[in-house]
Write a structure and sequence with these properties.
about 15% helix; alpha+beta; single chain; Ig-like domain-containing protein; elongated; signal; Immunoglobulin-like; 5-stranded antiparallel β-sheet
């Protein structure tokens, strides 16, 4: 038995294609947040080719899992997916000018954004 040539063509096209990396935007705490004990950073992930992405946060280069909430993926009009992840931490940690990073992996691609308080000051 010999599989049809279409099978090989389909397999090679699918296995050789590379999906684009997701678009990542990192938003700093709001000015209202800065008046309280805790602040929240928002990582917006868009144009994910599949309905799942692994979102990881680091603070000062160390992985953080406490205070992290990542919402479910939602389909965009372009048929790709978007999701948001939130990191809530002490205001003092943000004020210490540590580097906050949101790293996203999906379907063999990855992207990240980094930010610290001094990046946001005018």
């Amino acid at each position: 038995y010999q599989p049809p040539a279409v099978f090989f063509l389909f397999f090679s096209l699918c296995s050789d294609s590379t999906l684009p990396a997701p678009a990542v935007t990192l938003f700093p705490p709001s000015s209202e947040d800065l008046q309280s004990r805790q602040v929240t950073l928002v990582c917006l992930v868009q144009d994910v080719s599949v309905g799942f992405a692994d979102v990881r946060w680091t603070v000062g280069g160390s992985p953080v899992t406490s205070g992290v909430f990542t919402g479910p993926a939602e389909q965009q009009p372009n048929k790709k997916f978007r999701m948001s992840s939130y990191l809530t931490t002490q205001t003092s940690e943000w004020s210490s000018d540590k580097e906050f990073s949101c790293e996203v992996s999906a379907a063999g691609t990855s992207a990240s954004k980094k930010m610290k308080k001094s990046d946001c000051s005018a």
